[in-house]
Amino acid sequence: MAPDAAITEEVAQCEVMGSVDSGEVDQFVLADPSQDDSWMTVALTDAKGLNAWC
């Protein structure tokens, strides 16, 4: 994940958060900041837009 990610105490009220990690393959990262090692990634080209989630 990005080195400037939010500190857990700052997002304690958040259920999950998402981010785009740029690299050789851009990836969408979905994480629960209140749990250790609770995250997943998917290629950005395969990620669904907000309209698909609602």
TrEMBL record:
Pfam families: DUF7556. InterPro entries: DUF7556 (IPR055978). This is Uncharacterized protein.
